[in-house]
Amino acid sequence: MICPVCKKDMFVVEYKQIELDYCQSCRGVWFDAGELELLLEAGGIEGDKPFLGDVLKSPEAHTPEKKRKCPICTRNMREVMVGGETGVMIDACNRGDGLWFDGGEVASLVKIITAESPEKRGSESEIIGFLTEVFKAPQ
Ligand SMILES: [Zn+2]
Ligand SMILES: [Zn+2]
Questions:
Q1: Which site in 48, 67, 72, 96 is 20 to 30 Å from 121, CA atoms measured?
Q2: Contact, 31 vs 101, CB < 8 A?
Q3: How many structural domains are present in the chain?
């Protein structure tokens, strides 16, 4: 798969049988539909509903950034802010192919999700530890 930001080949990273596509140049990560939910579930953080479905219902954020194209269907993705004002900006394919996170954003998202549910903090450190190690996510 080709990185939507720098157009280079991405690497496939496997974690608990979930395959992610990771770009070594910009450190962005692509999740196919359902994979983010699997990652959160593997870490014991279960969402109440599919994350991608939620994102696609959220209003599109307006930013001066150039629109990125989905690495699967090559159409423009929508930019959505998750986690409120201080949240992270992610790109989602309108057809539901998947989600794109810029470098370090996955770790920020996991922090936002677990901040809402203090009992899940243990899983947070496991997933963030994994992300930090594999993706070298900034703290
Ligand atoms: Zn890239
Ligand atoms: Zn797509």
A1: 96
A2: yes
A3: 1
